[in-house]
């Protein structure tokens, strides 16, 4: 089963992906955070930089497009093809209020007939194969019943299902039964995404769904950057964690303001990384730091001196994050 790093806007940009790939072997593909096409159909310098294949190479990257306009999607797919990409992923999952309000991301799931028209246009004209990452509905898991036949009509290269509705954001358990239904009914290579936090979770998924093309892991890999390395038989190495942390900081500091940009980025990462530490107060101390110069030695010290928990403690995320394979319908 393939194991991909989930796309995470604001976190898994090019520097993050490259540094992670260099420090932690085992991830098959790094999925790029969504590209939102501008109305004038130009890639900004920032978008261009993020799309450059760099050290990982094109075959280990999957770019993603977020739009509700078929013309915008087709333009973006052509731009990606020109850059050498051979697949474009459509985002049908983003739950953010602004995105959904504009009818994009999981907002496209609101009206199955409109989604059908959108898919018809893009699958007829896309210059490269299209994959899809979706939620199971907007408000109610029962919506999945009307969405499945729509998805089944198109030659989706790979389908990734995050079995939650938009309303559920990333909270609570997942509707694993909805995922199993997709596995039963849809002919495409299928990827599972959601609440995979430990090697045992990944192993459990593989046992329950032996034919699965792969899994996509987000927060689990932020909390334990060695998670996939461990799934592949490796171990969590303190020196690799320190190298990852320091190299990432060094890269960001070459072009970002330490306090204005690097600090918030590292705080977002540490919100997850701290789940690996037995000291539950560590995150509170980090969160209070107002300066990078204060935050960095504290964070580095925690990596150097802490015992790590065997697995990240996601119960602390204050989201009732419950593992699907032990609590849901399997
Ligand atoms: C901060 C953040 C940014 C995200 N950005 C994207 C994105 O750009 N595209 C996408 O398809 N999903 C995005 N996601 C969703 C993740 O890819 C993934 O589906 C979600 O975290 C659930 O998987 P997990 O339980 O393994 O974390 C984002 C999630 C978070 C928390």
Question: What's the number of helices?
Answer: 15
Radius of gyration: 20 Å
Kindly report the oligomeric state of this protein. Answer: single chain
Biggest sheet details: 8 strands, parallel, barrel
The poorly predicted ranges are 319-330
List ligands, each type once: flavin mononucleotide
Question: How widely separated are the two ends?
Answer: 19 Å
In total, the number of strands is 8
CATH homologous superfamily placement of the largest domain? Aldolase class I
The average pLDDT is 95
Sheet-strand content, in percent, reads 5-15%
Structural class designation: alpha/beta
Pick out its properties:
TIM Barrel, 2 domains, 8-stranded parallel β-barrel, 15 helices, globular, disordered C terminus, binds flavin mononucleotide
Set out the fold topology:
Blueprint: E1 2-5, H1 14-23, E2 29-35, H2 45-51, E3 61-65, H3 70-82, E4 88-92, H4 97-101, H5 112-125, E5 130-134, H6 144-152, E6 159-161, H7 176-185, E7 190-193, H8 199-208, E8 214-217, H9 219-223, H10 227-231, H11 238-255, H12 258-273, H13 282-288, H14 292-305, H15 324-327
Parallel strand pairs: 1-2, 1-8, 2-3, 3-4, 4-5, 5-6, 6-7, 7-8
Bound molecules: flavin mononucleotide.
Residues 6-11, 33-34, 64, 91, 93, 133, 162, 170, 193-196, 217-220 line the site of flavin mononucleotide.
Could you explain the architecture of this structure?
- Helix 5 (112-125) packs parallel to helix 6 (144-152).
- This protein has helices spanning 14-23, 45-51, 70-82, 97-101, 112-125, 144-152, 176-185, 199-208, 219-223, 227-231, 238-255, 258-273, 282-288, 292-305, 324-327, and strands at residues 2-5, 29-35, 61-65, 88-92, 130-134, 159-161, 190-193, 214-217.
- It is 45% helix and 11% strand.
- It has two domains: 2-231, TIM Barrel (Alpha-Beta Barrel); 238-305.
- It has 330 residues and is α/β, with parallel strands linked by helices.
């Amino acid at each position: 089963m393939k194991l991909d790093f989930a796309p995470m806007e604001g976190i898994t940009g090019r520097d993050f992906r490259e540094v992670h790939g260099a420090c932690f072997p085992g991830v098959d593909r790094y999925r790029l955070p969504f590209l939102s096409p501008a109305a004038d159909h130009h890639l900004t310098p920032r978008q261009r930089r993020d799309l450059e294949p760099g050290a990982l190479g094109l075959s280990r990257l999957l770019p993603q497009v977020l739009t509700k306009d078929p013309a915008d999607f087709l333009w973006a797919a052509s731009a990606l093809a020109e850059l050498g990409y051979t697949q474009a992923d459509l985002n049908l999952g983003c739950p953010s209020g602004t995105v959904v309000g504009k009818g994009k991301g999981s907002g496209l799931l609101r009206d199955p007939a409109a989604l059908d028209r959108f898919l018809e246009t893009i699958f007829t004209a896309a210059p490269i194969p299209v994959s899809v990452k979706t939620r199971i509905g907007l408000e109610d898991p029962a919506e999945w019943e009307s969405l499945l036949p729509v998805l089944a009509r198109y030659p989706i290269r790979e389908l990734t299902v995050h079995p939650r509705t938009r309303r559920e954001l990333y909270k609570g358990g997942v509707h694993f039964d909805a995922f199993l239904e997709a596995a039963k009914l849809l002919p495409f290579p299928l990827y599972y995404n959601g609440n995979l936090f430990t090697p045992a979770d990944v192993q459990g998924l593989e046992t329950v769904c032996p034919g699965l093309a792969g899994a996509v892991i987000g927060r689990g890999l932020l909390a334990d950057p060695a998670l996939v390395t461990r799934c592949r038989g490796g171990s969590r190495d303190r020196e690799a964690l320190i190298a990852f942390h320091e190299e990432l900081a060094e890269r960001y500091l070459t072009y970002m303001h330490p306090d204005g940009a690097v600090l918030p980025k590292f705080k977002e990462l540490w919100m997850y990384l701290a789940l690996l530490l037995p000291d539950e107060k560590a995150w509170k101390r980090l969160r209070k730091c107002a300066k990078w110069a204060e935050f960095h030695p504290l964070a580095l010290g925690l990596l150097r001196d802490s015992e790590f928990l065997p697995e990240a403690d996601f119960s602390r995320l204050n989201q009732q994050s419950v593992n699907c394979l032990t609590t849901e319908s399997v």
